[in-house]
G-protein coupled receptors family 1 profile domain-containing protein
Amino acid sequence: LWGLFGNVITVLVLTKQGLRDTLNILLTSIAVFDTVFCFTQLLQEGIFILNNYDTHAGNKYLIAYFQGIVQWNHLALTSSIYSVAIIGVERLIAVCFPFLAARICTPYRTKCLVVLTEVFIFTFTFPQLFLFTEYKFQKHLVVRLIRSWATNSHAMFYWIYLMPLVQVILPLCVLTICYSVIVVMLRTAFKKKSKMASKITKSKKLKELKIFRLLFTLMTLALISFLPAVLMSMTLFSTKASGFVLNTDSFDFIQILVKFFSHLFPSANFIIYVTLSSKFAATYR
């Protein structure tokens, strides 16, 4: 509920400012996707809670969830991660090519990139609607989902290899590379500014140095926050690919951690690029 409320407020604030800035466009898209993700997650948790009190009604809504809602949950999560990856690329361009960034990252190109990304993700996640189609009704109205794709080699390839690769591993690896380069460049600039500040004390250079230290700390924390998600996603991918089957508790725990760390990205980027946007710009001025 807190995440849903916060993302709705973020959408209202950013849209009120207009979508004329590339960063506002990307942050608005992240907030929208996180809103959809939080809403679908609440539906899922609500159905599981209902199932504890009314098994018949809970199973009925559970079937409806897997038939028409689960795709939007995965779509929103994947879209959020890809939007944050785009922000990482945009920040990398701003740091590496500060004089060309304004011409490369225009609002029109950003909107087109967001739309094309969503079309790709929607097309990729669409087959998920057909992965859970067979149901077996057992005693006491207990429903067991049967994955009809288990005997289909193409469906297995999609579920085991393509889904974790495209949905999590690929965008997070892109984000890791971008932030790693940014952190290295910030570290190099930090050393140069330290030498300048040691010569000119109690001046504007010293103030800029304090700002830079704050930005460097925040970006380092952002890098640390999504590295566990990359490692856990790769572990999950290699586990599925090798044929070793995790037990339900371990699988659910890894999935929860991946989603948790994935949703630290919007918060970290919002703090760095919105709350401290003027300070970030001043650092590279």
